Amino acid sequence: MHKLPDLSPKDLWKHFLEICKIPRPSKQEAQIREHIQAFAARQKLKCLVDDTGNLVIYKNPSLGMENRQTVILQSHLDMVPQKNADVVHDFTKDPIKPYIDHDWVTAEGTTLGADNGIGIATIMAILESSHLPHGPIEALLTIDEESGMSGAKGLSPNALSGSILLNLDTEDEGELYVGCAGGIDLVINSRYEIHDTNETDKTFNIALRGLKGGHSGLDIHLGRGNANKLMTRFLKQVSITSTLGIVQITGGTMRNAIPRECFATIVIPAADEETLFHTKQQFENDINNEIGTIETSWSINIEPTNHVPSVMSKPAQQQLLNALYACPNGVMRMSPSTSNVIDTSTNLGILNVKDGMIQVTCMVRSLTESCGEDIAQTVSSTFELINATIDREAQYPGWSPKNNSEILTIMTQVYKQLFDIYPEVKVIHAGLECGLLASHYPHCDMISFGPTIRNAHSPDEKVHINSVHKFWELLVATLKAIPEKS
Known about the structure:
single chain, alpha+beta, Aminopeptidase, Alpha-Beta Plaits, 2 domains, 9-stranded antiparallel beta sheet, 6-stranded mixed beta sheet, 25 strands, about 30% helix
């Protein structure tokens, strides 16, 4: 077995291991930015932090490459903080603990942060190198990609001069991406009345766990269970067969991660206890029959707890369950023009019901602006029926493929020369910063690529070791092949 420091390319993995020690959830990138600034100072590289908090580092060309076009290498500094419920981990101070599992690198019970830590480490290895041929390089490391892309939105318009941008943030080696979906976050808020419970009622905690979760763009088509939707379905069934009172519901932590867990506290009359567990058994049978070949480790457990004096009012409870049940989730539309490409989807990512307040966060993605708007209106209309307020946050544009892309032609040829096979050219359903970056720098010829990462945005995240080496080879060869300035 190899150890992580022994993996190739060594400089890339060296930097990735250092990155894993530094907390970097979205909106808390100061420590990782300071780490990279100190690195740039040691390398005697000019760097700046713009008013938004993005970091830009400049490297001069290697000998003989002075007349090549300037390349922007771009990744984001933040990561999605997800952990298993039984894991004690504070993402604001605790290090990620990576380890090798056969052909993959993964982490102990948390997200690995290969999205986009491998991209950061790759850029640092390029900036540190003294022997790799390359023209002028501008490294752009943005903040807050995972929770709204505010870094790319607020990028200073004069920070960069490059004509080619290589975004190192996709997750399938052997694929070159030339377009991506846009996104809309919908934050739904409502209040509800609280009623007293009877002292003879029984209170139970419900825990729905063990779903795979994943990236709400890359994994939305895989048929995985959404914990918030499944909990809603179970509570709706309980409300039909028993006299249900909802105390609280909590599920999901990120709008762009398919929720893996959802927890609820409910109150029922003592006489309905047997019916509750019968409903649970029927629910388990139904879900296993529907998605049991996909979700092999999920569970729903019900445990008695201390008496709770108040619950959601019956009218409010009925309205909430109906709205959550009706809220669309998953793939809404496939692309009519590109085979096997998702056009539009939505993810019911966060659900919090407690102490008279309801908050729901959904993320809509679409390659087609009008279709994304249509689904956003569908979700909004569903919750407007219960008089909720809906705010739009973190809306960002898609990225349309560019005709006659020179960097696509170059990388296609380079890949064929390296690996004797042509790469696949694709449009991705996930959101990339390229759409926003293109609005600031419309002259840039852009492409996105990366190593193979699986289960991003979940504690099962892992990166394929050999794909990292191939990704590195492709980047190094591409930098060597960048054409001269016109």
